[in-house]
Design goal:
The complex is a heterotrimer of chains A (about 475), B (about 475) and C (about 100). Chain B has 3 domains: about 280 residues, no CATH class; about 110 residues, no CATH class; about 60 residues, Orthogonal Bundle (Arc Repressor Mutant, subunit A), CATH 1.10.10. Chain B is about 40% helix and about 20% strand. Chain C is mainly alpha-helical and about 100 residues long. Chain C is flat, with a radius of gyration of 23 Å. The chains are: A alpha/beta (about 475), B alpha+beta (about 475), C mainly alpha (about 100). The interface between A and C is large, with 68 and 55 residues. Strand 8 of chain B pairs antiparallel with strand 1 of chain C, so a sheet runs across the interface.
Chain lengths: ~475, ~475, ~100
């Protein structure tokens, strides 16, 4: 383990002339050359020449005093977020090599603020997975332990941060997809309030649940990224008409003003090392003067099946469009109905097919009320419970019930795979922001903690996160 | 045998300006294939629909015009089926179940039958606001074409699906209703019914003792009547021969003028409806509602027709004016600026309209109508007796139809001021007619008036004055003789 | 039991227009059964609970787009020019022609 400068450090160093963006970019490219053959965090990389040119431009802007908020910062973007300058595959054969004719809103916002997008990051196909193993481009490995997964679905986002192959990354979080990778790679992931960040350009999986989400190696950096991408987008009818919150100047919370509560029974679902790390962090907070309590919440024990029911229904619908007519993968037959079934059969991996079939199942006439509609009713219950609980405190849970699994360990049994999301899906059902950051290590493997606040409670989360970072000292750490 | 007919009418909101969920053009006919498309209406991954204000306003106005109770909010629902013209393989439409809320769930339309001048009522079951799919064409037949050729220019155009109860009594009745409905929507500025493919009709028809048959793919109001007439005859024959009319879906073949059973068996319907997660409900605010109400109140075929009737105009002429919105606007504005209601009605509703048609100029195009003040002036001149209606009709209207911009002074014929010499000439030349009249044949006077008119050639002359003068001279001749 | 689930899987894959290859069908029958039974647990959690469905998490209304510039894209660029005919229409395989 060692430390490497994060976004805030880099901006400071650029501003003072202590570091040059070209020098930094060259170092990141060198890490990528060194680690990528082992880790497979990227699906496509921008031409290094272009990256260095962009860094040179950034350097000039810093010298001229015209630097923008993220001038010269290298941000990797999950490959389900549309870029018109690099293919966007969602890690699926179906879309290899689809190049969108437009940029996602968040991509435009990053570019306008001077960030350099140097590559597209690996993921589970269409973001359907919790380990990063379901990519058509091969699994991503965890830089902290190469026989383990980095978590998914934003597997490449977590992994590139963990080996310093990027300064920041965008992932997407439908049910924990940036928070599991954050937990498994000792990085930070923040799923924003639903609607705070535009989804325009995000290849959808579960539209009503997901948000494009920043990842970085520190809470401060995640705040910087979120500030850059947040805010109303007229091109997304579900985006909230609120001002982008001011997050980068926030100070750590005072322990005395912190109130944390733990949903009763939830931590007990976790493996022992996880539980231990979780409770020892809470004890530390308490000893600093924070109040730590428990809260009773109805419905959360069934949040997981409710979440999957809704996500799969939306997925089956969203993925209907991939039929071999507009996108790269084709069928063989000359007969339309066979042709599309072939294209879909060849283009999707098994996990995606399974989720499509389950989505059709829960929406079909005889089952819709018992499954899909029931899940939306449970969703209301969970949302109301979370909103009620977060009025008085910040909810704390482990980020994942398990330690980073070995490759192949969890994907054989669908229920074991889904169970990895037990803590994270609650925030997606409830729409509230959730932060995962390192809580500790066990036998060299990272363990994460999750905090959830109420709607638009991002500032509270950032302030608590900064405090926790001070207590654990776990910021800007990288593997190797 | 009594027929029960219900219709499902799809009408594009062609005048909305934009597509339902993106800024592409709602009038796609002017583009080359696939030039009126963007990520949203192509359904590209990550593109998101955002409801347009105009399409929603127009849909709401249509619902109010059809006497629907407006919903609290509009909800858009995904309806899934695979077809090449549907780029997402689901259509964003509306549904009354699973959290859905269509723009109308019950209303009615009173429509005028120009056959018996009765108002009739059809109940409206439901109206959905939805996306039109793209257009597919085939090489030769749909059954043998190697490719389906898809043009997405139409994909996403706002479409109203209007479903009636089976209240219609005859093919003619169904046609009249559709025509009135389209006119109503045209009055709202929602659609231009004369655009190619702007509306499609599916019809349900059943006879007593038979099952309900659906006819798809009817593309004109004339064909609504033809298709239903054919289908009712077909069903009647089946029943009269003791056969059974099965529940089925048939296809209208306009070229051959027959309905044909669909060759493929329709699959079990499983549309996987659920509310579109990308589209929060559109709240029907007081502002939206007020704007829609105003639109409906200010201008509707019924209001216009009754207003014109109230001016003493015959219903045939009143309807002739009402049925062409540009004519109706011209007429009402003309009356307002002091035109003579009766004479103006004849000009607008009969003769200028006819003249425009004659000359191949579209009477629906407001640009083809003269400025209303000009027509009002013309009607006043006739009313004052300065010109005869026939002179205006024969000499002015053809020129006005050809050039609505032409100033009136240039169009008005020279007036015959020196009538007496003309009368004298005629009395001299038409000895026989004069003799006949003096001999008691009163009809000969008409002939003499005509002769004077002919002598006036293209100049304007008041036949009443000619008649008066002739009479005076003839009486003088009588007494003189 | 598995046979029942296999017929369900066949129905679902026909509806979803999804061809299952090789050993996929067998495995799918097993896993779909397990997942379907797991997801049914949602209904149980709702016993005795009054809750209306929640489809949009914040229950806010949509904003209405006032109209604006068209942003057309070139279909041939997106799908590749070999999939577009001379007139610009997308070519979709339709009928097997010998």
């Amino acid at each position: 383990m060692h430390r490497t400068p994060g976004i805030a450090d880099l901006l400071y160093a650029y501003a003072n002339g202590d570091m040059d963006p070209v020098e930094h970019a060259a170092r990141v490219l060198e890490e990528i050359r060194r680690w990528e053959p082992k880790v497979n965090a990227f699906i496509s990389l921008e031409d290094p020449e272009l990256v260095l040119e962009a860094a040179e431009d950034a350097g000039k802007r810093w010298k001229r005093g015209e630097a923008r908020p993220l001038e010269g910062i290298l941000v990797g973007v999950k490959d389900n977020i549309s870029t018109s300058f690099l293919p966007t595959t969602a890690a699926s054969r179906m879309l290899d090599p689809y190049v969108p004719p437009y940029n996602a809103t968040v991509v435009d916002r990053l570019l306008e603020r001077g960030a350099i997008i140097h590559g597209k990051l690996n993921l589970d196909e269409f973001a359907m997975g919790s380990t990063g193993e379901f990519s058509a481009f091969g699994p991503t490995r965890n830089p902290w332990s190469l026989d383990r997964v980095p978590g998914g679905s934003s597997s490449g986002s977590g992994a590139c941060l963990a080996y310093a192959g990027c300064d920041g990354a965008l992932g997407s979080d439908t049910g924990g997809s940036v928070r599991l990778p954050a937990a498994y790679t000792a990085t930070v992931g923040l799923k924003p309030t639903y609607g705070l960040v535009s989804r325009r350009g995000l290849i959808p999986y579960g539209n009503s649940l997901e948000q494009i989400s920043p990842m970085a190696r520190s809470v401060r950096d995640v705040a910087l990224l979120l500030e850059a991408i947040a805010g109303w987008d007229p091109g997304d009818a579900t985006s909230l008409r609120t001002e982008a919150p001011s997050l980068s100047g926030l100070k750590p919370a005072e322990p005395g003003e912190v109130r944390v509560c733990v949903p009763r029974g939830l931590p007990e679902l976790a493996e022992e090392p996880v539980r231990k790390a979780f409770y020892s962090l809470l004890e530390r907070l308490e000893s600093e003067g924070a109040s730590v309590g428990e809260v009773e919440m109805r419905g959360v024990e069934r949040a997981l099946p409710a979440y999957y029911t809704i996500a799969l229904a939306e997925a089956a619908s969203n993925l209907a469009r991939y039929d071999g007519t507009l996108y790269p993968m084709r069928g063989e037959s000359g007969e339309y109905w066979r042709y599309i079934a072939q294209a879909r059969g060849r283009g999707f991996g098994f996990e995606v097919k399974k989720r499509i079939l389950m989505g059709v199942y829960v929406l079909s006439e005889g089952y819709r009320d018992e499954y899909y509609v029931a899940a939306t009713r449970l969703r209301r219950l969970v949302r109301d419970e979370v909103l009620r609980a977060t009025r008085g405190c910040i909810l704390a849970t482990p980020a994942s019930p398990v330690m980073p699994p070995r490759l192949g360990e969890r994907i054989g049994d669908p229920l074991k795979l889904y169970a990895m999301d037990a803590y994270t899906v609650i925030a997606n059902l409830a729409g509230v922001p959730a932060l995962v950051q390192p809580a500790g290590f066990h036998e060299g493997l990272p363990i994460g903690v999750q905090f959830m606040a109420g709607r638009l409670g991002e500032p509270q989360l950032i302030r608590l996160g900064l405090l926790v970072e001070e207590l654990t000292g776990l910021a800007e750490v990288v593997a190797g | 045998m009594k027929a029960r007919i219900g219709l499902e009418i799809h009408v594009q909101l062609s005048e909305a300006g934009t597509k339902l969920f993106c800024n592409c053009d709602s009038e796609y006919r002017r583009y080359r294939p696939n030039e009126n498309v963007c990520p949203v209406c192509l359904g590209l991954p990550g593109a998101l629909p955002v409801p347009g204000k105009r399409p929603v306003e127009l849909a709401l106005a249509a619902a109010l015009a059809l006497n629907c109770e407006p919903p609290r909010a509009l909800v858009f629902t995904r309806k899934h089926y695979f077809y090449p013209d549907l780029p997402k393989n689901y259509q964003i439409t509306q549904f009354e179940k699973v959290g859905g809320s269509p723009v109308c769930t019950g209303g009615y339309l009173d429509y005028l039958s120009p056959d018996d001048w009765e108002w009739r009522r059809v109940r409206i079951r439901r109206i959905n606001l939805e996306e039109d799919p793209g257009r597919t064409s085939y090489e030769g037949s749909i059954l043998s074409s190697r490719y389906a050729y898809v043009d997405y220019n139409r994909s996403g155009v706002p479409l109203l699906e209007i479903v009636t109860e089976p209240d219609l009594k005859s093919p003619r009745d169904a046609r009249v209703m559709v025509e009135y409905l389209l006119l109503t929507l045209e009055y709202l500025g929602a659609t231009n019914p004369r655009l190619e493919g702007v509306f499609r009709v599916d019809a349900n028809v059943s006879l007593e003792g038979g099952e309900r048959v659906e006819i798809k793919n009817i593309g004109s109001t004339l064909d609504v009547e033809r298709a239903l007439r054919y289908e009712i005859n077909r069903q009647r024959l089946v029943l009269e021969r003791g056969g059974k009319v099965e529940r089925e879906t048939r296809h209208w073949d306009a070229e051959r003028g027959v309905t044909k059973p669909l060759r493929y068996k329709e699959e079990e319907e499983e549309y996987l409806y659920f509310p579109d997660p990308d589209l929060p409900p559109v709240l029907i605010t007081r502002d939206l509602l007020e704007a829609a109400r105003e639109k409906v109140a200010e201008w509707s075929p019924r209001r216009v027709y009754e207003e014109i009737l109230g001016l003493g105009v015959k219903r045939e002429v009143a309807w002739s004016i009402t049925s062409v919105p540009a004519a109706a606007r011209t007429y009402l504005a003309g009356v307002k600026s002091g035109g003579d209601p009766g004479i103006l009605a004849r000009i607008v509703g009969v003769d200028l309209k006819g003249e425009l048609r004659e000359q191949g100029r579209d009477p629906y195009n407001p640009g083809n109508w003269p400025e209303p003040g000009k027509l009002a002036e013309l009607s006043r001149l006739v009313a004052k007796g300065e010109y005869t209606y026939d002179a205006v009709k024969g000499l002015v209207l053809p020129k006005l139809a050809a050039n609505p911009e032409a100033p009136l002074e240039e169009l008005l014929p020279e007036k015959v001021e020196d009538l007496e010499p003309l009368v004298e000439e005629v009395l001299k030349e038409e000895e026989k007619a004069v003799k006949d009249y003096l001999g008691g044949k009163k009809k000969a006077l008409n002939y003499l008036v005509g002769a004077v008119m002919r002598k006036a050639r293209k100049r304007a002359l008041d036949p009443r004055r000619a008649r008066e003068l002739l009479l005076k001279r003839l009486e003088a001749m009588k007494t003189g003789a | 039991m598995n046979e029942d689930w296999c017929s369900t899987v066949d129905k679902l894959s026909a509806l979803a227009r999804l061809e299952l290859g090789g050993d996929e069908r067998e495995r799918m029958c097993r896993e779909v059964k397990v997942i379907a039974e797991y997801l049914r647990g949602v209904g149980e959690a709702l016993k005795g609970v009054e809750a209306e469905p929640l489809y949009h998490v914040w229950e806010e209304e949509s904003w209405l787009r006032p109209g604006g510039e068209r942003e057309p894209v070139d279909l041939a660029w997106v799908v590749g020019s070999d999939r577009v005919d001379e007139e610009g229409r997308l070519k979709v395989p339709w009928r097997e022609v010998k």
